[in-house]
Amino acid sequence: MFSTKRNRRRVDAAKKTGELKAAATNHGPVVLKVLGLLCASVAIFFGTIHGVAWARTTPTFGLKKVTVVGQENATDVELARLAAISLGQNLWTMDTRAMERSIAAHPWVKSVTVTRHFPQSLTISIEEHRAVALLSIGDLYLVNEVSEPFKRIKAGDSFDLPLVTGIDRELFTEKREDALEKLRQAVALIDAYASEPLVKKQPLSEVNLHPEGVTGVTCDGQEIEFGEGDVPAKLVRLARVRKELVARSMVAEVIRLDNRARPSWVAVQISAKKP
């Protein structure tokens, strides 16, 4: 009986040995592949670290050329100074988003995109505000196409734009949205006036907002009382009146389009000046 048990143990041991050899034969290549991939991943990881470190310090990616496009009023020097750009700076280390935020602080900049072009150049694409009017609220400010003041006028600045008056600085401070609504009214009149070919020959120099409505003053001193609302129809009547004045060799000092009781009526005060 003891001899039989020892034989069974030998058979079991031999069977297990065979199973282990079979498993090694079947799974060995897989294990080797996994080990190979692991080694390759480690090599790539350390190689990438080394490559990034090299890229961030090598002169190969040093900035040599900066191109600024889209700007008319902001200068290349001003924009480069805001972005803290310097020649030789490594492109890999540049934070373009931070540069965009810094450049956006320039009063003329409406939007900006900074793009790296490897190996050694950079493009700054600018969209500027379009100035359509001047606003007088103590100081003078430029007003953009969406009726927002965006830049205070400094000594030496020169802009040939209609001047908007009649809005108090206190209104901007205390009720900004109300002030902007008045400004939008003035800018809408300026845009509509400039788009009418029969009236824009006498461009506006001032738009005054007051409790009774809006008064426009042309560059030759003619006053136009627009009153409130219905600007397109009033511009048509204005063009008709001016045409008639030219035919009669007369000059109007004041043209009133603000008759609320009879909107189609136009009152004209004739000037002593000759055309």
TrEMBL record:
It is found in: Cell membrane; Membrane. One of its GO terms (biological process) is cell septum assembly. Residues 61-129 form the POTRA domain. InterPro entries: Cell_div_FtsQ/DivIB_C (IPR005548), FtsQ (IPR026579), POTRA (IPR034746), POTRA_FtsQ_type (IPR013685). The chain crosses the membrane at residues 30-55. Keywords: Cell cycle, Cell division, Cell inner membrane, Cell membrane, Membrane, Transmembrane, Transmembrane helix. It is a single-pass type II membrane protein. Pfam families: FtsQ_DivIB_C (PF03799), POTRA_1 (PF08478). The keyword Iron-sulfur does not apply. GO terms for cellular component: cell division site; plasma membrane. Its main location: membrane. Essential cell division protein. HAMAP family: FtsQ_subfam. Belongs to the FtsQ/DivIB family. FtsQ subfamily. This is Cell division protein FtsQ.
